[in-house]
Design brief:
By secondary structure, this protein is of the alpha+beta class. It is built from three helices and five strands; from the N terminus they run E-E-H-E-H-H-E-E.
């Protein structure tokens, strides 16, 4: 079975951060990628890709797959090379 790539940064007494490319974009299907990240200790997934990028990489169902896995999805849609002033781009959150 293929494994979705990720690195874990442990934070003693605070949990951990799991750094990864977008699930479903590295040779492992989306559902399997999300499941493997959850098994690695992730409780939430933070996505910084735009809606257009999610569609381009055929992972637009990411929020639903994350929610179905029992995790929370945070979406910080950031265009490449973009800068933000103030609160023009608030995160969207989808709870489990």
């Amino acid at each position: 079975m293929n494994k979705h790539p990720y690195d874990v940064l442990d934070q003693p007494d605070q949990g951990c951060l799991v750094f990864t490319p977008c699930p479903g974009t590295k040779g492992v299907d989306l559902e399997t990628s999300v499941s493997q990240l959850h098994q690695a200790g992730a409780d939430a997934i933070v996505t910084m890709m735009t809606d257009q990028e999610l569609a381009k990489f055929e992972v637009a169902s990411l929020p639903d797959v994350v929610r179905q896995s029992g995790m929370t999805w945070f979406h910080f849609s950031v265009e490449d090379d973009a800068t933000f002033i103030g609160d023009r781009n608030p995160a969207r959150r989808t709870s489990a």
